[in-house]
Amino acid sequence: MSVDVEEKRIVLRLPYRPEYQRQAETGQVHGGIISAFIDVAGTFAVAAVVGHGVPTINLRVDYLRGALNTTLIATATVLRAGRMVAVVDIDLRDEQNRQVAVGRGTYGTQER
């Protein structure tokens, strides 16, 4: 994991595990795992900027290619962190640096 608060960016890695498969013996990472990982990356990026945990308001994921037997690398960049809401773009790649998915998350920034 790497965090750059000045750049409002975080990079997370998720090593492949067989239990992440969409179907046994295929090596294909399930879309739910991909979506959850994108959400975690977005959440951590905003939390690093605002200094506290944040809830997800909305999340959009576009799947671009299958992820097969590979570590996933998420780069989340906070586009804006306002008083109430933050918007984050998340780029997800495999170990060969091929883009697997992209996400955009909206998170609540108000501390409770």
CATH H level: which superfamily? Hotdog Thioesterase
CATH class: Alpha Beta
Please provide the count of β strands. 6
Radius of gyration (CA) equals 14 Å
How many structural domains can be distinguished in the coordinates? 1
How widely separated are the two ends?
27 Å
Share in β-strands: 35-45%
Structural class: alpha+beta
Q: Would you identify the regions where 5 or more consecutive residues have pLDDT less than 50?
A: none
What can you tell me about this protein's structure?
- The chain is α+β, with helices and mostly antiparallel strands.
- It has a single domain (2-108), classed as Thiol Ester Dehydrase, Chain A (Roll), CATH 3.10.129.
- The protein has one helix and six strands.
- A six-stranded antiparallel β-sheet has the order 1-2-4-5-6-3, covered by helices on one side.
- The longest helix is centred in the middle third of the chain and has 20 residues, at 31-50.
- The protein is elongated.
